[in-house]
Structure formats: C-alpha cells, structure tokens
User: What shape does this take?
Amino acid sequence: MYDKILHKRKPVLMKACLFLLMVIGSSGLSFAQVRTVKGTVTAADTKETLPGATIQVKGTSTGTVTDVDGKYTLPVKTEKAVLVFSYVGYITKEIELGNQLVVDAILELKKTTLDEVVVIGYGSVRKSDLSGSVGSVKSEDITKITSFNPVQSLQGNVTGVQVTSPSGTPGENPAVRIRGVGTFGNSNPIYVVDGVIVDDISFLNSNDITSMEVLKDASASAIYGSRGANGVIMVTTKMGKTTDEKTVFNFSGEVGIQNLAKKIDLLSGRDFAIISNEIKSGTYNNVDAVPNTDWQDLIFHSAPVYDFQLSASGSAKNIQYYISGGYFKQGGIIDKSNYERITLKINNIYNLSQYVKLGNNITLAPYTQQVAPNVTYEAYRAKPTLEPYYADGSFAAVTGVGNPLADLEYSNNFNKGVRGVGNIFMDVNFLKDFTFKTSFGVDAGYNRSESFTPAYTVYNPNGSISQQQNIMSRLTKNNSYTFTWLWENTLNYKKEFGKHSIDAIAGYTMQNATSNGLDIAGDNLIRDGESFWYILPSYIYDPSNDVNTISKIEESVNLQQYYSMISFLVRVNYVFNKKYIVTATFRSDGSSKFATNNQYASFPSFALGWNVSEEKFMQDIKWLNKLKVRASWGKLGNDKIDYWERYARVQSDLPAIFGINNDPNSGASYGINGNPNLKWEVTTQTDIGLEFGLFDSRLTAEFDYYNKKTDDILVLLSTPGYLGNGSGAKVMFNAASVVNRGIEFNLSWRDQVGKLKYNVGVLGTTIHNEVLSIGGNSGVDSVLIGGYLGNGLPVTQSKVGLPIGAFYGYQTDGIFQTQAELDAYPHNSQAVVGDLRFVDVNGDGKIDGLDRTYIGSPIPTFIFGFNFGFEIIGIDFSVNIQGQTGNKIFNGKEAVRPDPYNFESHVLDRWTGPGTSDTEPRASFGGYNYTPSDHFIQDGSFLRVRNVTLGYTLPSSWSAKIYMQKLRIYVKADNLYTLTKYTGYTPEISSSDPLSSGIDNGAYPITAVYSIGINLNF
Amino acid sequence: MRTQAKLYFSILVVTTSIFFSGCKKFLEKDLQGTLTQQLFPTSPSDALLATNATYEAVREWYYSAGGFPIFDIMSDDARKGSNPDDAASTVGPYDVFTHTTTQDGIDRYWNALYVGVKRANVVIEKIPAIAMDEELKTRYIAEAKFIRGLIYFDFVRAWGGVPLVTTTDPPLKLQRSSAEDVYTLIISDLNFAIDNLPLKSEYKNTEIGRATKGAAQALLARVYLFRNDFPDAEKYAMDVITSNQYGLEPLFIDANGVNGNNGVESVFEVGALQSEITTGGGNQYANTQGVRGTPNRGWGFNRPTIDLRNSFETGDPRYKGTVINLGDTIDGIKILGDGPTPDITYDEHGNIIEIECYTRKVWVPGDNVITQYGHHRRLIRYADVLLMAAEALNENDKPGEALLYLNQVRQRARQGNNAILPDITTLNKDELRDIIFNERRHELAMEGWRFWDLIRTGRAAQVLGPLGFVAGKHELLPIPQSEIDISQGSLTQNPNW
Assistant: This one.
C-alpha cells in the first residue's frame, strides 16, 4: 500500500519543471484555444457592482479580480471550464462557461452563520456538524476594542466568558474566566495559536487574527485533555487566499486618547480638616485656610494610544502568504507607565504538490513596558491638606503615605523583551482520505526587567528626614528566558460516502518547557544616569567609593514553566445523513509534574447532536429553518501547578551568625514538605445545547446548560503546625471539589430593510459557583483563607457551600447609638458609642474572630452583553454593552489604615450623635471600625457601554479613483459610560488568584479611550 | 520519487524512535537548584549546615511571640506602643487580655516554634547515620537538643502540653502531650546538652554564639525555677556561676547593647547582621520595637508603661538603660519620635496614662531601619543567672548566699555611684523574695520575662487583674483556633478559652 502512495506522487522538482514548461508554453508556444470571457459581478442584496470579486477557472490557477466597476476580463483556454465567483461575505457561485463569452454573476449574501466553518482542536468542522459548545468571534469584532491583547474582544461577545483587567497598567494581561472558576490555582484558559499552545496572546496584533473560537464544553475541549479544564481559546491568524492572486494590502491606523474614566470622590482639604478636628480637636486651627490638594488630578492625565498595522496577503505560484508589521503604543495616564510593541507576522503555505503542503506561522514581538509604582493608592490616601511641594520646589513629605509625585519621579521600572511564537508544519495527503500532519512549534521569550531607584530623601517640614527615603541607590535586574517546544503529529481520516460522513483523527504530541531567571541587584551605583545601570564587579573593590555593592545574585527556574508532557489523542466525529452527530474524544496525558505512579491520566468525552431541522417532518415548518439539539459529557484535566510541589524540599538560606566578627555561617534544613502523591485535577463537564434559526435565520439563538464539577482540585492547604512547615506555608493536595453550573444564551437578530442592514444581539451567562469540599480526610485545613489586605488581614474564606474566594468578616448591624445600647449588646472592648455594631453570629455573648462570617461573593451570578449595529449607505454603527450582577467588591483600599489618611466622601454622612446615622460610623483614623466587615462590601453590579463605533466606508466607485478597494474611516469610544454603585475607579476588579478576586486594593484605574481610525484595502 | 520516499521514511523513523525510546525519561524533571529531603543531610558538611539552621529558627521574626513581643505587652511593664491605631485590633488586645483564640500572632508563634523543632529533629535524627568525626557529631546533636529544649520550654510556658514531635516525619494527626511529658523531654534534652557541649571558652572566636554547656545549665536552672524546684534550680545556676565562664558587663547598657555582643555577660544570644531580610542574617525583633518616626528605626511597639517608668528606685541608672524618651540623644542621635503618635496620652480625668517612649534594650547605634536589624537578642544573660541563683538560694533558706549574688547585680547597676541602689542586707525570706522579684523587674525589664515571672510566682492575678487578666485562663495562651480546625478536633483547647 505504501508503495502505491509513493508511485502516485510526482517529485516536486519534476512538477516544478513541468510548471515552468507550461508557463513558457502558455506564453508563446501554446497551441491551445484561448477565449476572452467578460462580465460584471453584482451583489444580489444591494444591486451594486462588486469591485474586487474573484473569478477563477475551477481546478486551475487562472483567475482574476473585478475592477472598480465590478467588471472583469479573463482569458480561458478550455471549453468545458467552470468559473468560480467569490466575494467575502457572499455565497460562492459556480457557472459553467459553455460557449458564452459574457458571464455576469449575481452573488447572494451569506445570511446564515449556522453553516460557517468552526475551528476546533486539531481541525475544523462545519458548524452544523458540531456537537460541542464553541463560541466564535470574527476579525471585525476582534479589532473593535483598542487593546494590546486581542482577548479583550471576547468580553461581551461570547457567552460564558469573562475578561477583566486587574488594572489599567499598560501591558497588563487581563484575567480570563470561562464558565466560572473551577480551581483554586491558575484559572486561566490555554490558547492555541495556529496549533501552538501558549499561556497568553499578548504577542499578537488584533489585526492579524481571522477568528477566535472558545471551546467551552467537554466535547470541544477534551481533545486538549489535561489542559482543557479552564477552557481553550483557539486563535487562527490570517493567511493569504488561493483566490487572491493580486496582493491585497491592508492598512489599519488608529489614534486615540485615554482619560481617567472616573474619579473617586474624596474629601476636600476643608472637609478633611473639619473631620480631623472632630477626631482630635485642634488639629487644624483654621479649616478655611488649609490647602486643598487634589492628588488624583496631580497623578492622572490624558495619554495617547496608537495602533498601526500594514499587511499584505495573497498567493503566488503555489505559495499562500500573509505578512504584516504592526506597531502598538499605549501611554499611561500615570507618568512613567507605558507599553510599546512591534509585531511581525509571516504566515506561509507552500503547496509543494497536490498532496504535500509545507507551511509556517511565525510571530515576532519585541516590546517595552514601563511600570509606574502604585501611586494610585498613595493619591487615594494622601491628605488633601498637604501641599505636594515646599516653597523651594522640593517634594513635600506626605505623612504615613509618601509623596506620590516623588515616588514617580524616582521610579524607573522597565520590562523589555521579545517574544517569538511560531511553527512549521507539513501536511501529507495520501490514499485520498488520509492526511498526516506534523507540526513543530516554539514559544520563546526573553525578558529583561530593570529597576533603578536613586538615593533620595524627602524631608519633613521641620527639616528632619521623612520615612520616604532611599539611602543608597539600588539597581535590580532580572533576566529571564523561556523556551517551550511542542511537536504534534496527527493522522486524519476524512470520508463521506452515501449518507455517512466520518472525520477521525489520532495523534501523538510532545511538549517541553524550560524557563530560567537570573536576579541580580546592586546598591550604591557610581552615578545615577541610565548609562550607569550596570552591576559591575569592578566597582566593588574600589575602597574610596565603596560603590556598586552586589546585593543579590540568584538564579532559578520559573516554577510554572518547567515541565514536559506526552499526549496521545483520538477523536471521531460521525455524521449520519446530516442529521445525527456522534463525537467521541479521548486524550491521555503524561506530565512531569506528577510522580511516576500518577503520571498519566485519561480524559474521555462523548457527545451527540441532532439536526432536527433536517428531518422530513420539520420541512413544513417554514418559519423554523434550523433546529439542533446537542449534549456532551466528558472529563478534563488541569496540571497548572508549580513543578516542584511533589518534592520535599531543603531550604538552604538559613544562615546562623557566629563569632566575634559576626560572620554568617551557612545553614540548611528541611523546608516545606512536598506531596509525592499528587495527581491530576479532573473536571467533569456536562453540556446540553439547543440551537435554532427562525425566519430564514434572521433570528438565531443558542442555549446551553452547563455543569462543570471539578474534583481532586490541586490546592495549597495549610498543614498542622506541628509538621513544622511554618506559618503561612502550604502544601499541595488533591483535596477539593467545586461546581460551576449555569445557563448560557445567545440571541441574535439580523435583517435588512431596504438599504438598512441591522443586527441586535443579547447574550448572557448565569454562574452558580460552589465549593463542595475542601480538605476532606487529608488532615489539613477545611477552610481556605485568602484575600490578604495590605495590613495582612485576610478577607476571603473558601469553604463548603460557598463560592470560591467568598468574602468573610464581621457582619454589621447598624451603629451603637447610645452607651446604653453599647452596654446591652455583646461588643468588642474597643468599641465605643458611634462605632459599628458587629453581629454575635455564634451567639456566645462575645464578639471575636469566630463571629466572622460570609459577607458576599466576588463571583457574579449573571454576566451579559448586548450588541446593536446597523449599516446604511456606507455608514456603519455599532454599540457593545456588557455587564454583570450578583457580585460584591471588598473595598480593601479603604479598610487599611495604620495612619491618618484621606477619606471617601461618604464619611461626611458620619455618625455625630444619637440618630445621626445608622450606617456610617463616627469618623476615626483607623482602629476598630476598620476591622474587615461588610461595611467595606459594595455592590459590584455594573452596566458598561464598552464600545461605540461609527464608521463610514467610501462608495467603491470613489475609493477606486484613489486606487483603493475599500476605504473606511471611523470614530469610536471604549468604556464610554459605566452604570454602577461602586465608588472605586471601576467595578471590574480581578486578580490572577481566585482567592483574592473582587478586592480593590487601589490598582491603576482603567481608562476611557476615544479614537479615530482608518482601514484601507488596496 | 526518491525524495518523497526519503522524506516519509525519515519522518517515520524519527517519530517512532522518539515515541518508543524516550517516554519515561522525557517525563523526568528533577528538582532544580534545590535539594530534596531524601538527599540531605548526608555528609559532614551537611551536618554542619543542618546544625546552623537550628539557630536561624530562633532569629526568625515569628519566633518572637509571633512577631510582636506580646509577653511584655501582656505584663504591667509595656503597652502596645506604635501609634494608637497601628495594629490596634491585632496586637492591641494582648494589652488588655481581650485576645481570642483567633488572635493575630498566636498561630504564627506556634508555627515558628515547630519550625525550630523540625530543624532540631533533622540534626538529632539524621546526623547519627553520617560517617564523621564522632566528637563533632555528638556536639552537633547536643546543640540541636539545646535548641529543641529551649523551644519546647517556650511551648510549655505559652500553652502547657502541646503535641510532642521528636521525629522529622510525624503522623498527620497528633494529640497534645501533657505538660509533664514536655518537661521530661526538655530536661532530658538539656541534660544531654550539658554533658556534651563545650564550655564557652572552649569555642574558637569564630564559633562564639553556639550553644554551650553554660547555656544549657542556665536554661535548665530556669526550667526548674518555673517548676518551683528550687534545689535543682540552685544546682544548675550555681554550676554556671562556678564555671567562671561569665561575668557582668561593666556598663548596664552593654548587657544588651552592641558592645556586649557575645561578651562576658552573654550566656546565650541570637547573633544577627544588619540586613532587613532574615535569610540575610537580620532579626526583625528590634525593628518591631525600634524608635518610630525620627530617627526611623522601626515600628515602636512594646512601649514602657508609666508604672514601669515610675517603679525604678531613685536614681537607678537602669531607667535610662531601659527607656528612651523623646528629646534624648543617644549615640549622637536626637530622638524626635513619631508625628501621629501623641507625645502624652491622658485619660478622661486628665491623668497621664501613656508617654511616647521606646525601649532602650534593643537600641543599635544608627539612624536608619537597616542597622536596627543587627541587634543581638539576649536569650540568657549572666545577670539573670545571678538573680535565679539568688531566688533559688533564698527559697532554699540560704539568704546569705542569695544576697551575695543579688548585690552583684545591684553593684553593677549603680555604676560606681554609691549614693544609689544600696546593698540589700535583709535575711528575711519573704522580704528578700519580694526584693529579688523587684530586682528582676528592673534588671530584666522589656526583655520578655516580667509576664512569666508574675505567672510562675502566682502574682499575675493580683498585678494584672486590673488590666483584664483572668486567673485560670490567661496563664496560658489559647491553642490557635486554626490549628484546632485543621486537626479536626484532635487538639483540645486550653481551659476557659
């Protein structure tokens, strides 16, 4: 059989020669009969001609495109030719040429989205043949949001997906959660970029992406087995079309301005002075004469954002290509923060023969990020009665906080590096129905972090040294290098015979990840300038200067990025009569993170689909043109843990100090105990889905019920103190279960009235998140404490029956109005009249730590999106709204108060005597009322106008005059408006740690962006 | 045709060979740059490393009662300190005995002590199997037993009976042993240490700071004193005195100060470097109590009370050696203190209840935070041994000898000024008991002993009652609630908590 395959092949070289001969032949020596066919291509919907439509002679490489008037001329050699007319967004049409010399084509608009091709793991399927739950976003929606990270575009566009930014820091990756939070550790999904598995996609320019597909249920994501539990996001980048013989150039340019979306309402100088006097009389002699510094105004300002991209794509002589260069730069609304990135993209497919394809997808992305210190929090706390500068222009001391402007001035933090992600692959088609594919991909990154703080001192008004001081200049650097390779080999069998359609794939993959970091630090540099930011051993021995002391040299592996994996995978998708779909998937993964006895785990899934609308009895129901039900069940895994959790480790940095000269004597001993019995965390997911299209698919809808139960969750737990692991030290166990369940819906209405095309869509997801067990019989803690505030107090407790990272603290019940009331109720000894009344939850007659209780969930119970858009006479308009309800925010920045800080303005409603307030306690600079309680819990619900875009596309006849195929200009606004009760900068508070989400610790605020842009096709 | 065949063939070969050869090997990822416990300690140099690490355990910040010197704060000698709001709800309750089973610090203290126990157990359990110089091996084990005895004595004072861990691999579930069992282990460990540790003078200059025979004897004397076993307390205290290894620093401030580091008065101290990181050799103990504000030396917790300030005998120079007042100049540095902290705090009747001041016992010359980390905390000093001897001798009806040692302490304290701190002459046992007790307060103020002295002598209820102390409850700390929770009921709570 093997021989037979080989005999069918013609060597590439021979083919090339043949091709060459043919070219030469056709140019001069041809005896074939050539006719010239002409025609016009028009759109059925608009009745307008279509410039740039492709016409190709079927089965050949002969083809052309229509001119500005939609006309074409094409030399055709053979008589029995079939012309293929295609245009983006229209149904491809084939017309037999026969004897005609004039062939006009009218192309129908593609109305339905149900039959689009959907990218899934290791392949793609027609949507009608899909049995799993997959959400999809196309290019035009991906580029709508101005962001360095394309994943931002999923928010509000795909059901079940929540994308939130931990802060507005330029270049900071958002947290992505698919169908809730299923684990206590890393809850991020994986990304598969053209077949390469990566942890994030910050290296991609949005304009380079064709589509992103979110694999949500077990049927879809089980093919990624061990890594599918948090969901999988498939990213497909652009590729030149075989039909585009002329190079298509595309330019996108956008310039925007970012502003602080919202200011926090803090006290003015005068109000602060009044309240200070109330707390301690005589603090300010004349409240009308105090300064009024608005620290927020001092640190925030408008900042620009630029995004440019130029691409060229097409095909030539068996080569399909897409190359692009992009530049993105985002200034920060806080000084000394910004992000700049260049992206280079080269995608090629080389059609070596009818049977062999080679290809590559390569992205190279150098970047520079500057990170500002957390002055947002300082500006929040700084007293408004303090001036930022002294009369001589030097920085003034800001007691207890530090002067944010000085912090900015002396901060220099950079991340500079380059990320390269790409793969080369080969497809070999044999025996007609088989395709063997091998792909070798790499994800390589180099990052250099650099931070320099000069020696400086901020003085108190009396000339003494304030706490804001850096005695010696300090330079710290981290050089890290990450390299992951992934080799995947798959064999695909695809066959349709009679009413049967089979698509089967089997594969074997290997992956290896290494990552190393070198930290070095030096103090007391010889000069402050950037050109001296080097840690040079030669300076150390200079006795006169004693400069450049090396204070740290440490090399280590990145605990998350040091592993290897081997996987076997199989999937069979069988469709009978276009009606019945059966999908079975199996993946077996081996991971180096587990000891030999638990190294491998298997992840099966099974799904059924039924295209009810294909049944005869449905044919009479004209208004219902599509109806499909599907159900899936499967198991998924997760091994996103530090590679060393299974090892009992020795701690080697335990020096003792002995001798008359105070010498450090190295020490080492048993550190934390590992857990050699660790095994895979397994998520079992069930999904039942319903899809339908009504009224000629004007209305399409998709409903899913999902139930995702994660068992044997890999969780770090406190161990009994007597094991000697130390305070706060945790050991990993497979010891928890969590369930996430809910309903997703996505309704969309698309129609055209005359020249007006419009669409309306709503989508939503409900999430019920509940911890089913923790600890179990592992002999370790059965509650999980987290969410530590700046003062070290924890405010989340995950325990059975509550959501992950549930807030806990004291429950308040009004305010002690009188001494009699205070005496009558159990109270903490520090409480006085005017203070918050904590509830004696356990009823033991006293208020203590045991009375802390559940006070809210950081996980929304409902997230939703709303889209509206229309197009008419070249104008396009769209609005994207999103929101969530049911979650709470812990205002952590307000609850930490070791020193007198400024207040949020609600303190003006404080208790000042019996009956004055039952919600806002007497004013105080910290202490009892700042014990973590529901006083700091706020409603996190919001509704946000995420994006509004208004664009205008020049009529094609006009743009053609300036040699453009398409010219569109637009204006847009991101984060235009947010409706929320939350008092902070944004209600979208997230954290990479599920035990700390929803806690506002005063992060860099997100921005509103107003931009103008242009898209050119030529 | 051949090209294609080659291509397919090579793919086939590469795939299958990798497939069948490397699977097992490929998935092996050893621990990088870190030893596993199976591989340590296995050599003489490992043995030394493991022994040194036991000393680090007592330099850890949490070893100091969970980070804060809560035992002084729980006595009549110290208030919480810092500014009024700082740690008001975390450390504040210890000041007035409203701390609870979930109080911040208790769990850290508990955990830190067991870290020390584990490190000592590594030496005691693993080093015997290492082929090395037997004498050195025995000394290492004796050093570790000293540290383990020291820590279990911290344990039994604070909680009574606790789970007794004497192996590196204890079971996941343990119950509390009785206090008596804990004492039995302490006494046996310290006796081993006494028998096998060198005298202080037998150590090389570079080794000063390691546990000595004298340190073990002094500690054992202290243990017996807590058990009211005065004959044994006397025996071991006298062993230290007659060893002629120790004396008193001429200057009182040097007894805890930098000039007395590893000096003649030091029986056991925790060496430290001026580094803000514990693993870099620093000790945050002094930073916690250091002057707050200007100069910025630390957080200013553990503030001497009005009562302590007023209790010193007239002219006692130890007052200045214990309390730093605002306006003082020490080592050329003017103490200005903290802005947000009131210099003087009054009660509703206008009485002064607190004065912003700091403890002198942790002072290290310097005007910044880092230097403060270099303070060598004295865990046992010779003056304490003398006072323990005096106390035991008096209880054993040898008041004359008791006076000898008591007056040695007073003589040093008066710094040559014969107008103050006259020699004590009374031979009345009860009177002398009170005088010695009072002497301990002033000699050892702010060094963490006052609370325990009140407890072991049964005076706590009387002295601390007004502050909130409840007899039958506050003699012990509560077992941390988190530990009880984790143990799923196998650990029981102390009475009345």
Remarks:
- Chain B has a mean pLDDT of 92.
- The first strand of chain B starts at residue 78 and ends at 81.
- Chain B touches chain A through 109 residues (CB under 8 Å).
